[in-house]
C-alpha cells in the first residue's frame, strides 16, 4: 500500500499551477524583491535630485509659398508661376540640418571650446546650482580646486594641435588676473594673463589660449577641452530635433535642441534659425538674379518678334482689307491664343530652369510633360483652324501671332520688373515665426516619471533576480516536482519551525527535553505535519521487512536530526515503544537534547566494549529510549561494517515497536549507505529552497547501491503564511498555509 498519491494535472490545472508557482516565487523572495526595488527607488530619487537638469530650446520656422512673398501678392504670383519652384518642407528640413547652417552657429559661438568649472563628482553641480551666492572657497579643505558656487570662465580662443583635440586641460586661478594651465602635452604647468592672447609650447606643438574672463577665488580649477570642429558640427546635427508641425504639408517646421546650459542652447537655436533664413534669402536672391539675367536677354528678342508679327498683320490687312472672321472664328482664335501663350510660357520657363538645373531634374521633367500635353491640345485647335476658309485661316493665324507675342512680351516685362524688386528687397521664402527664449523649466529629469520608472525597473529586476535564484540557485520546494522528476514519494511536508531556535536557547540541564518542539509546542504546524507522517508510517511499515526507520539526508543542515527526535517523541506519545539511535558517529549531538553524555553508546557497542542493555538509556519521556553515538571513533565506517551492527539492529527491532536511526548525510560520508540495508524504511530529508534535485536523485542512487531502498522524501523547512488564506509552496493546485484550530478552554 502506498500512502502517497500521485496525480497527473490537467491542462487547466497546469495553468493554475504555473500561476501559483510564480506567486510562490514572489512571496518566497518578497524581501529580495523589496530590497532591490527599494535600491532602485533610492537610485532614482538620487538621480532625480542630483542629475544635471536638461533644458529644451526651440524655434518655429515657416516655409512660405513663393507666391506669398512681398506686398502685392498678385505682382509676385506671376513670377512664381513662371520662374520659381515651391520649397519642399522635407528638403528644407535637410538644409536646416546641413553643415552649411550648423557650422555658422558652431563658429560664431565657438562651440568647439568647452570651458567650465571643475565640480566634485556626483554632487558638485547640484551644490553649485543651489549655492549661487558669491564665490566659494575652492576644493575640500583647500584641496582639489572644486567649485561650489557661481564660478565661471570665458575663453575666446583655444587652439591646440590635432593630436591634443579632445584632451582635457585644467586652468587654475592664481589671483591678480593670472592663471595656470596644465594637462596633456605639458611636462610642467604654464602661466598666463587673463585678457591677453597667450602662446604656449607643448610637446605636440603650439597652444593658443585667450581667457577673457575668469571668476573664481585663488585655487579654483576649471576644465577646458578643444574638440574637433567637425565632431561638434556632427554632434549638433545629430542632436537637432526637426519635424514638420501640425498636419502634413503645413509648411511649418519646429526645431529643438536639448542641453544642460539653457542660455547656450537658446543662442545655438537662434543662430541656426537666423543663418537658415539668411541662407534662404541669399539663395532666392541668387535665383532671382539668374532669372532676371535670362529675361533681360529674352526681352529684346520677344519685342522684335512682336513687332514682326504686327508688321506682317498690318501688311496683310492693307492688301486684303479688314475681314470679319465670325463668332466661331473668334472662339477658335481665343483658344489658339491661350494654348500658344501657355506653350511658349512653359518653354520660356524650361529655358530658365535649364540655366540652373540639369535636363533630368524633376522640375524639368514635369515641364516637359506639360509641354507635351499642351502640344496635343494645340494640335486639336490647329485642325479646327484648317477646316475654316483659307482667308479666315490667314486672319486667325496673323491675329494669333500678334496676341501671343504681345501677351508673352508683357508677361516677361512684368516679370523683369518684379524680379528687380525681389532682388533689391532680398526677400526669401522662409521666416522665423518664433525665436528661442532662454528656457526656465528643465524637461529632464522629470521626477513624476523617473521615480515610478525606477520602482518599475526595480520590481522587474527583483522578479528577475528571484527567478534566477529560484531556477539556477534555489533548491526543491515543490513535492509534485520531486515525485515527477526524481520518482520519489513525498511522505510529508514539514513547515519551517520558527520556535525551535527559541526553545533550544531556553533549554538547560534540568529540563533538556524542553528543546524538543513536539513537547514544548505540540500545536506547532511542523509537529502536526509529523503527526501526519506518523499515520502514514503505520501503513508503510505493513509492507516493510522490519520496523527499523532510517532517516538521512543529502547534506548537513537539512534538519534530519530535528525530524528524528521530534518524530520519535510523537510516536512514543502515541503509545508505541520507540528507541532513537544516534548513528552519526562523526557529528551527532542528540544526547544534548536529552541531557545525557556521549560515551557508552553505539561506537562502544560496535567495538564490543559495551552491551546493548548498557548502551540503551531511558529518557524522561514515557516509551522513548535513546542510544547515543558513543565516543567519536576515528573509523566510523569501518565500525559500521562489522557484523555486530546487524545483531544490534535486530535486537532493538525485537525489543521495540519502532527503531528510528538518525544517520549522517549520505552524500558527505558512506555511513548511511552502510546502515540502509538494515532498515525496512529509509527516508531522505530535503530542505526546501536548499536541497537540489540532483542531490536527491544521487542520494537515492547511493542508498540503492548500498543495498537499501528509499521509502520516500520528507520535505522540511517549507515556508508558510499564517491565517486562513495564504500562499506557500505548491502541491498540485494547493498552497501550504497554517490554520488556527486550537482547542477551546473548558
UniProtKB/TrEMBL annotation:
One of its GO terms (molecular function) is ATP binding. The keyword tRNA-binding does not apply. One of its GO terms (biological process) is polysaccharide biosynthetic process. Residues 292-319 form a coiled coil. InterPro entries: AAA_dom, Bact_polysacc_biosynth/exp, EPS_ExoP-like, GNVR, LPS_length_determ_N, P-loop_NTPase, Wzc-like_C. SUPFAM superfamilies: P-loop containing nucleoside triphosphate hydrolases (SSF52540). Residues 391-470 form the Tyrosine-protein kinase G-rich domain. Gene3D superfamilies: P-loop containing nucleotide triphosphate hydrolases. It catalyses: L-tyrosyl-[protein] + ATP = O-phospho-L-tyrosyl-[protein] + ADP + H(+). Keywords: ATP-binding, Cell inner membrane, Cell membrane, Coiled coil, Exopolysaccharide synthesis, Kinase, Membrane, Nucleotide-binding, Transferase, Transmembrane, Transmembrane helix, Tyrosine-protein kinase. It is a multi-pass membrane protein. It is found in: Cell inner membrane. One of its GO terms (cellular component) is plasma membrane. Residues 557-675 form the AAA domain. Residues 16-109 form the Polysaccharide chain length determinant N-terminal domain. It comes from the Bacteria. NCBIfam families: eps_fam (TIGR01007), eps_transp_fam (TIGR01005). This is Putative tyrosine-protein kinase EpsB. Belongs to the etk/wzc family. Probably involved in polymerization and/or export of exopolysaccharide EPS I which functions as a virulence factor. May be involved in an ATP-dependent process in the pathway for EPS I production, possibly export of the trimeric repeat units across the inner membrane or their polymerization. The chain crosses the membrane at residues 31-50.
